[in-house]
Amino acid sequence: MSTTKAAASRPEIHMIEEEAEKLSNLAIGIEDRFPQVSELLIRETSRARLHSSKTIPANVVTMGTTVEFVDENNGARRTVKLVYPSDADISAGRISILTPVGAGLIGLREGQSILWPDRDGQKRRLTILSVQQAQAA
Predict the structure, then answer these.
(1) CB–CB of 125/112 below 8 Å?
(2) pLDDT tens figures, 25-57
(3) Rounded to two decimals, what is the model's pTM?
(4) What are the DSSP calls for 67-104, one per residue?
């Protein structure tokens, strides 16, 4: 893949520094069981622009946010909450960061799109429609 195509399919992303470190460690820990997701997540965390939790823009997908996105390939719109694996429950709309979609959404801003592989290796263009930050407890 050319650098131009890679840049077009992978927009600039933003992450909270502590989350990026935690996600990198999580990705390393699953490398043997889920090599594709591990590689994708490590690549994303390593290229992200890092922020403190106080300075991350509110329209960025972080852990615990609720995000509405559309799969441009089929027009399907979904609203999910991005969570760590222990909190995942697809029937309740909580998807794990360790799914291909979860790893693809992290760090994107409203309005951004990313060309991202699904579980079958097919490329999907995911576009962020809205981001709602988790409410502080």
Answers:
(1) no
(2) 999 999 999 898 899 899 999 999 999 999 999
(3) 0.86
(4) EEEEETTTTEEEEEEEE-GGG-BGGGTEEETTSHHHHH
